[in-house]
Design a protein that fits this description.
Chain lengths: 671, 316
Amino acid sequence: MPASTMQTMEHRLPDRDRPWMMRTYAGHSTAKKSNELYRANLAKGQTGLSIAFDLPTQTGYDADHELAHGEVGKVGVPVAHKGDMHQLLDGIPLDEMNTSMTINATAAWLLALYITVAEENGVSAVALQGTTQNDIIKEFLARGTYAFPPGPSMRLIADMVAYTITEVPMWNPINICSYHLQEAGATPVQEIAYSMANAIAVLDAVRERVGERGSDLMGTVFGRISFFVNAGVRFIEEHAKLRAMGVLWEELGRGRYGVRDPKHLRFRYGVQVNSLGLTESQPENNVQRIALEALAVTLGRDARARAIQLPAWNEALGLPRPWDQQWSLRIQQVLAYETDLLEYPDIFEGSKVMDGLVAELLEGARAEMAVVAEHGGAVKAVDYMKASLVDSHRERIRRIEHGEQIVVGLNRFTESSASPLIDDEGGIMTVDPEVEIQQREAIAAWRAQRDQAAVDAALAELGRVAASDENIMPATIAAAKAGVTTGEWTAALRETFGEFRAPTGVGEAAAGDRDEADLAELRAEVERIGDALGRRPKILVGKPGLDGHSNGAEQIAVRARDIGFDVVYEGIRLTPSQIAASAEQEGVHVIGLSILSGSHRELIPSVIAALQERGVQAPVVVGGIIPAADVAPLQEAGVAKVYTPKDFDLGAIMRDIVELVATRNGVAAQA
Amino acid sequence: MSPGGEELGARLRDGDLAAAPSVLNLVESRTAADREQAAALLRAVSPARLGGEAPGHVVGVTGPPGAGKSSLLSELTRAWRARGRSVAVLAVDPSSRRSGGSLLGDRARIVADPDDRALFIRSTAAGDRLGGLAPATRAAAQALAAAFDIVVIETVGVGQSETEVGEVADTVAVIVQPGSGDVLQFLKSGIMEIPDVLVVTKADLGDLALRARRDLSAALRSAGARNTPVVAVSSVSPVQGIDTLVEALDAHRAALDVPARRAAARRAGALADFVVEHGERGLRALGGRREAVRLLEAQDTGSDAPTLLAALEARL
């Protein structure tokens, strides 16, 4: 090749790109165990940290709170105070590390703990790099780990952004999440539109907070906002989605916020690829899915992820083990280091297909954003968006049930040989139940050894600031330094802000319209049973514990309504005694419980005990991520039936439940 | 075997709040045997058996969807419990016309301590009754008023449902949010009956809420209802107006001729039950609705609903 051609060559990069940041979403049991895991992961070539907190930490409860029961150390690490955070980060150089924390309602608190630990180790806050997820609107919509009502929640976010922009300037104070919207069933258009609407709500709130300091600061703020996205297995369209988001983001910056610096206008995102599409049946196929989904966020250079974390192949079975997570890290490393992916400029430049897809998505997203704007913006449109997501998810399930959407190994090609990957333990990690007891004791010990007067003073100051217009961060950092606990910080704010229950989205969900033929038979049976019982069969759908993943429960509730049940659904975060009280007062014929956080072995027997205490006879069915080994113990505890992700046919589940109601009430089988 | 009507009635007379779930299971049932037991229950809590009208205050809470009824009810319940009053909430939700099923969501919005046995919440589907009360709600309210200090009936809608609630409640509170012009129109045109208390929610909206309150007061005046209180409340932090509302409800009840209103409620209930059982044809056989009402009014004012129904049926 002549030298002149070499110089003008536009299809190769002069230098290979540096790979994106590689992380693994990790944390479990205790701060000490998680610290060991982080060090091992870094030794395997991981380049950043991604901390998974347990549900009590995410929702602001200490391990000894009633709602924490069964959840301590399950889906992440418990961090109750600066001592835990010190242990969690022990030996990790915080001035070099880039740490992502999946934390939302209590983000201000966990960031304060992180800053405290850094400073107590001689690292200034100015040197800290990382991200707090801190996106509360999607918690109301999809993930459920909110703690405060929308107004005060948005204020906390605005406070954090305003604080970090000057005091922790390399920190990304918020990740606008479209990830969880897709997990809740969002279409690509919904994912784009709702996350952009969400970003607008945040930016508008921050503008009020930093407005007086001049519009220049808004450019800096805009440049520090990053996104956390999802990628499904339709990886071409998914890539187009990211390009469309980039276009909208720049438009938004220029148009609405007057941002001019191209550096600030760049759409930056991290990603965890899709878990919703991962299957429990033939789980090894998930590896292919994950690899293809990783392509969606890396293929085109103009819309490539800054940071990637991949789920593990066995997530639909239970909690992944370190080796499972290593496999996912290796997928990233093969993609980045073995393939030629990073050697080229954007490979979709000038592609008719890609441009066409982007234009389609932009048109749909703009229309949907206009609808949200008509509702008065993302905060006010939570009910609307939630109901739309429930509808989309219902449509997705319907398509899978009817074979219109093929899922290999689930509704097609289901013949399989036995998997050698599943060992005696079920191919998953289990958290020692002793962890919760130890953690409860540890927190009592922590409270006993600290300077209580300093703690009381810090909490009083926190309460004063919460009720005022001042930024919450300085008082929060002071509380972290004084030895306040996660539960105490949150309780102090709940005192001022109040508690909140998010909309369930099911009341507004459209009635089943396409499946009349499928539903008619079950409806007739429900009518028949109702006539025999004297009243319409009634079901309580409940989510015990802190797990906020309510898709399954919502879909069961909507489908039960569609076949003629009266359905009592109270949303997430219920104690066993609340569920039992509802079951008794409502006079239900059957109770459906959903748990995805791995706390079923503790919580389900507690619910059953509470029901017995009240003399409720109604049978209990359970759905969720329940490892095979746990099914028998649950049945022994009195559960009538257990459903796992491989039971994708809602119609079949409903037939079971109808039959259960009939037999338990002595209604003879249909002639 | 579920407890019989006489036994449940006795438990309610003794103030046993734990009887409430069984009472609801019974009055909701449509089987012939249960209906007999439900009648026995109502007879067991009749004024004759109680030695007077049931002491509880039956409060109807109604209004258009989205007005903030459930959040308001949550705060109201909290205020009543703080005053040491026991509360039963009967929340009526619409049923799907297509499947007959329903999603009963109101319970989720009422903050309740599960160990508080003096707070009972039951959600009921309205069934075939478009915008109206669930068939069992009248009976449930009459029975529970024997044991609970407050019995709340919550329904959705304005017009029909508000009229029906008015037939069973001692006090009807209509809840509207600022900017609901239809309520103004309904009040002026007489489509809607004059509520005992009118509540404007979302008082945190400030001027908007103030204007709504003024407009409603003006509409009430032009409809000749100068004394109907209009209370502005906010159910979001900072909560305001709830104490005023509690006082307004109490004041209405204190000034009320309870025996007369209850007698009217029982007559309306008996007539509604009669129409469900025997239809328009049955009404014609009695000589029409007016004649049926006259028949009912000729009965003893303390008669319970089943006795009134039997009196009508005796004329068939």
